[in-house]
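Design request, tokens follow.
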């Protein structure tokens, strides 16, 4: 069985859905309060837990053979941040995975973590990579660029508010990904010998500017790409202030890099590393637009939502002592 962390995230969800389409057994490590009910129709197995809770990680990894790590932090909070999750949480996860005899770990990281950026999301992911490499586990690390849902976020804000502020000029060159393509790449790493113990940068099959990717996302949601660029001082100011402003500033500083720095990889290299049917950036825009629109509309959410009932457990009758059984999902601390 394959354990997926971060299964309710944008890439993790695609990983779970794709694994289930392939009829593979999947266990999803989800936090209480996460929108895991979107995955109910996949037939995946759930386990409520938290990377910050060692006991729940030990329980979730029981009887697992493979591990795909898509967990991460978008907007930091006091307890849910890049130190407690990206570094400390993954450190414990890899330690336990080693004890459990996990055959291979596939870690989703991001391009640019080796450039020395002073943004927490970058240097903490580099730290997680080093923890995995030094763990003694067999691994593959994929450093991915931005995918279509990042740009659809901005396009939907234009649709809602008429305009959006971009964190950079957007003239930089990138290879935006289709999340389904990225999910297939992550899954293919589970048993592909050529990527064993390698760190690989991956991107989409087209090179374009970040502004072009944003423009195409706007076309997908049928709005004009009306945007303004945030002044540089506004972007950097938040990182000098105290919490809670700083946590949002960290996220803004990360996006500023994605809209000002080049993040490219040779598409031919990506294709040669993975023998999968790529769909491409544009093909990912319509299905993601539909999914994201549903999640943003309360009425559509209620219509499409499967009832959030916990249907599965990692325990078979008689294999765990009553006192070892969890009382319930550990509470989120953010």
């Amino acid at each position: 069985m394959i354990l997926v962390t971060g299964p309710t995230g944008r890439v993790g969800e695609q990983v779970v859905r794709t694994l289930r389409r392939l009829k593979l057994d999947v266990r999803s490590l989800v936090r209480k309060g996460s929108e895991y009910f979107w995955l109910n129709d996949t037939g995946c197995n759930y386990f409520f837990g938290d990377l910050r809770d060692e006991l729940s990680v030990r329980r979730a990894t029981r009887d697992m053979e493979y591990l795909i790590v898509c967990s991460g932090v978008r907007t930091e909070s006091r307890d849910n941040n890049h130190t407690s999750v990206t570094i400390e949480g993954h450190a414990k996860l890899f330690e336990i995975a080693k004890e459990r005899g996990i055959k291979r770990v596939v870690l989703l990281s991001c391009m640019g973590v080796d450039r020395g950026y002073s943004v927490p999301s970058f240097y903490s992911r580099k730290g997680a990579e080093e923890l995995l490499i030094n763990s003694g586990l067999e691994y593959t690390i994929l450093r991915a660029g931005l995918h279509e849902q990042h740009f659809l976020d901005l396009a939907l804000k234009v649709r809602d508010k008429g305009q959006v502020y971009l964190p950079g000029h957007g003239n930089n060159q990138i290879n935006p990904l289709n999340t389904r393509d990225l999910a297939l790449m992550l899954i293919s790493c589970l048993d592909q010998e050529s990527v064993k113990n390698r760190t690989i940068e991956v991107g989409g099959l087209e090179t374009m500017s970040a502004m072009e990717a944003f423009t195409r996302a706007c076309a997908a949601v049928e709005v004009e790409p009306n945007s303004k660029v945030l002044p540089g001082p506004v972007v950097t100011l938040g990182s000098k202030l105290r919490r809670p402003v700083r946590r949002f500033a960290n996220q803004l500083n990360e996006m500023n890099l994605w809209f000002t720095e080049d993040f490219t990889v040779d598409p031919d290299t990506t294709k040669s590393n993975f023998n999968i049917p790529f769909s491409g950036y544009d093909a990912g825009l319509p299905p993601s637009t539909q999914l994201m629109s549903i999640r943003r509309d309360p009425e559509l959410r209620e219509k499409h939502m499967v009832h959030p009932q916990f249907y599965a457990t990692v325990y078979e009758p008689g294999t765990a002592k009553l006192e070892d059984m969890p009382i319930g999902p550990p509470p989120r601390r953010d």
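Comment from the thread starter after seeing the answer: thanks! The radius of gyration is 20 Å.
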